[in-house]
Amino acid sequence: MIKKIALFSLYAGMAFGQGNTHNLKAGKFDGLAMTPPMGWNSWNTFETHIDENLVKETADIMVKTGMKEAGYTYIVLDDGWMTKERDENGNLVPDPQKFPSGMKALVDYVHSKGLKFGLYNCAGIQTCAGYPGTRGYEYQDARFYAALDIDYLKYDWCNTQGITAKEAYTTMSNALKTAGKPIVFSLCEWGDNQPWEWAKPVGNLWRISGDISPCFDCEDNHGTWSSWGFMKIVEMRKDIRKYSGPDHWNDFDMMEVGDGMTNNEDRSHFAMWCMLASPLIAGNDFRKMSPETLAILSNKNMISINQDALGIQGFRYSVIDGVEVWVKPLSDGWAVTFLNRNASTSTVNFDWKKHIFNDADFGYSVDFSNNQFKIRDMWKNKEAGNTSKAFTANLESHNVITLKLTK
Predict the structure, then answer these.
(1) Could you give the number of structural domains in the chain?
(2) Does residue 246 carry a pLDDT above 70?
(3) Which residues are catalytic?
(4) Which of 6, 92, 128, 371 is spaced 20 to 30 Å from 143 by Cα?
């Protein structure tokens, strides 16, 4: 009898032990975002007040105005696209009042314009706005997205008590890969769990902050959380640029260009997102977009800095009398942005020969005392001399000058 008990214990231990022998690795689709994704997201302006007419009009405008040609590819519907409850089989249900033609028809419409389509959900039991979250439904939802033929998933972090970010996002990444449809995976857990340290094999981009606000450097305190002016977000994280690059981007949030700031501040906002190699996801109402806003968002010179093949995030080189100097190594030179943080106009007088740019994270450097570069003003779209002479200019409050240096 003792032998039988011992044998049973041995076999039971073997059986139960076998359950933990398989280590499921993260499985994002590689190569979908070799440059920072560009597009439009509904949340900043519309929150949950979205419908199919808004999407179709936005798609039409992106084509008509040249934004598609400039590189804006994705239309992403944020929170609020589904009904408040799943159906009897546990499936998500696109809201039939907002999308009477059905979500698949809307995806097909966007695709017919040569654009790509994205949706939103959340790792928790509910989304941030109280709609059905994905917790416990990861593989079912991934199959649903694949059947819709979407191209992009933004995945939020509300109502996630009891789960860990790395595990939750890895599970959804694996679910998307298993479903078989290549989908850009955008992690939106606000940087609370340092995704730059673990998310490279999991997703194509990850948020590094809480939500943005349409202001230069304010904080909007909402009680239990805050939203941030774009310069607050720029300054929020230290020493994370080394984690960003092709197909694994630090995401500084959707843009607020055209949402109520001054034209100078809009230019500064866009310039910084380009210098930081952040995804360029517009958040304004394209149907009411001013010519000035369109000119900023579709500036191909600036976009070329953001989309540069090296994929290196820029860094703040120095601050001179309230004017910040940001630099970014490019595949064919350097980008340099002067940003005036002061409340009044400042004078830029930058003697190149006295400066050495040294990118310690990626190993790029240049000593201007023995290297000469041509200068092009990327906002004015004209040549601006070379680095043999100091660069001088007046720079208005909260405005930028962006230069490209080439040999």
Answers:
(1) 2
(2) yes
(3) 156, 211
(4) 128
